Amino acid sequence: MNEFGGAAERATTVDVVVIGAGQAGLSAAFHLRRTGLEPDRDFVVLDHAPRAGGAWQFRWPSLTYGKVHGMYALPGMELTGTDPARPSSEVIGAYFDTYERTFDLRVHRPVDVTAVREGDGGRLLVETSEGVYATRALINATGTWDRPFWPRYQGQETFRGRQLHTSGYPGPEEFAGQRVIVVGGGASGTQHLMEIAEVAAATTWVTRREPVFREGPFGEAEGRAAVALVEERVRLGLPPQSVVSVTGLPLNDAIRAARESGVLDRLPMFDRLTPTGVAWDDGRTVDADVILWATGFRAAIDHLTPLRLREPGGGIRLEGTRAVRDERVHLVGYGPSASTIGANRAGRAAVSDIRRLLEREPATVR
Description:
366 residues, 23% helix
């Protein structure tokens, strides 16, 4: 690394900055190293989490590895010998930690990235809690965990019970003897609901749309079709949906049992919250002690705002992983590459593209 003199600050120069050390960021770092770039000389990986594991380290203890819907191994190292009864946060955290050390990726943490701006000499300035980096290319792999989505409904501030989001879900024990409303029709919402129903006084499941349950195998062709639907939104410059949102919920034995018992008896979205629960315009009400919002996440990309990458539709339009409005910026783990296998492929594709950029345009330092 070298010191780079800017108009008002000094920055450390590198060829590539990777923001985020989850599946997508580690995959990108692996491929950067494989092409001959050295960590802490040619590229740097910045991660704001306290330890290895990406967003997995924050998952609730009851999400054991056996309940995870597919974990595709990082490039160059298989994940083997796992105990399905062990919390996924521990299994994947340990796996990521071993991976970082094995390939000597030298992840900097905890480091917060506050903004990415235009710099001098064709470089981007990455402003962080450990200083400023001047880089020729950026791989953004920040995922969604840091931006939980909280819908707004009339009366939300009047509810006297507890409201929490999936991101703060502590496990089912904390809901023992309580009346709980779970909002959301995704995988997390159904998992939470089935766990909580075993200890709660009562549960109610509410979703905005009728849940779609998927029967039969989900093979490569179905996966490609789901990814294509998400990819189309990104091409149009719209905020991406998750891949899971277009695949439906797998109809396994646990889901079947929960449907038969009435736990997964879905109600349409309520119209407002009241001090004691929720209400619909048709006069129906449900009292509750807790409302759990399993309403998903949004892409954590606010630090890219100074680059003006967003389209009028609110998303960042990509060609492959490259931002259409700035070829130096790549987004991995965004939209169609948000799955674990997609993140691996995106990391490799981004590095391939960036290598061509670096070879085409020599570094400029003023």
